[in-house]
Amino acid sequence: TFHPASYEDVLPLVDFNKFPAKNVKNLVALEDLGRGSTGKGWLCITLTKPGSAVCVLKFDNKHAKSDKLVHEREIWALMYPEFSNMIKLEQWSGADALVMPHFATVLEHEREQYKDELRDVLTREFMKNGKVHKDVRWRNIGKYRSKDGSIVLVVFDLHDVVNYNVDAHGDWIENALKSLYDG
Q1: Above 90 in pLDDT, residue 160?
Q2: Are 159 and 68 in contact (CB under 8 A)?
Q3: How far is CA 25 from CA 28, 45, 90, 153, in A?
């Protein structure tokens, strides 16, 4: 069903530090996060009170049953095992949906302070696992506060992650950083 509501009225009711429980059967699509080359993302919340939990649902652009989303879930498990209990493939509205945590946006005025951390994430998570993220853009980078209180970056939208090949990807991290900070 469709029930229009003001974003400003709903936002204060959302607890962005909560993820939906495993038994959630209903979600409210709060925001269209956009469409990429392979999928469409929605910011969704639960109906729980006092604070709704939040997640992202990603649907395949072309298929109800999606091998691409299965692959992306596998890459999530490899790159970020700390989120393994949150990343899952479920059926929503008759189609496969990749359920993922939502991360805060890295705002433009704070991006410079995360340059070294971003290099570390690309090296530690991707290179360590022999992978290359082919779409490193600010819209695919988020942050969260870890249990120890530090801010941690996450590079997501993992459908375009490929195996590292030294001939093709030798300086991919430097090129990615250059496109973010010099472009």
Answers
A1: no
A2: yes
A3: 10, 11, 11, 30
Give 84-107 pLDDT, tens digit per residue. 999 999 999 899 999 999 999 999
How many degrees, rounded to 5, is the angle at CA 148 between CA 145 and CA 151? 30
Angle at 36 between CA 85 and CA 3, to 5 degrees: 75
CA 177 vs. chain centroid, Å, equals 19
Question: 141: which strand partners?
Answer: 155
Residues with Cβ within 8 Å of 96's Cβ and at least 6 positions away in sequence, in order, are: 59, 60, 63, 64, 65, 66, 69, 70, 89, 90
Question: What pTM does this model have?
Answer: 0.88
CA 4, 102, 137, 166 dihedral sign is negative
